[in-house]
Amino acid sequence: MDLILPFKIGDFAEAKCFDEGFKGAWFRSKIKDMRVTESGHLEYYLEYIDYTEEANEWIGVFQKNPFNPACLEGKSNGSTEIMLRPSFPRWYRGQHAPKHFPKSEVIARVHDAWKVGDWVDWHNKDCYWTGQIIELTSKNVVEVKFLDHPMGEGQQCLAKKKDLRPALDWSIIKGWTVPLSTAKGKSW
Prior knowledge:
This protein is an all-beta fold.
């Protein structure tokens, strides 16, 4: 079975990072080139949109998380992660969504206000950090707990609601999907 990825040269995408201090963060990028390595791994040459001082780099579509205990122990199960996904889809809040959408475009729509338990991506330091809202601290601010080590940095931060977007998972097979949000036994 041939694996067909939805990326081509010139596309915009988001790339995940395992660098210390940025574990699990997603960076906006543009695909400049692609290749298959001698070992048969697919790589893309990326230009970082918000980090113009960073050199372009080759990134493997799948990589082992060097912080994952399974990877440290030399086990291959569960230690390989997807490192590139398409640009985040347009998203709208409730009544602000247009009545008609282009047929081929993926759209995310959030119906309610943010609540405890919601999974979000927080835009900070010119990248996106995935976490879960653990407290509504004020009208415009929430407290977010980010993914624990080895998937993320594991800290808690105050985030302005205007800097949040819904967290979406992406896979080659399923495309964009909504993660479950479990607050008070409910999910969306």
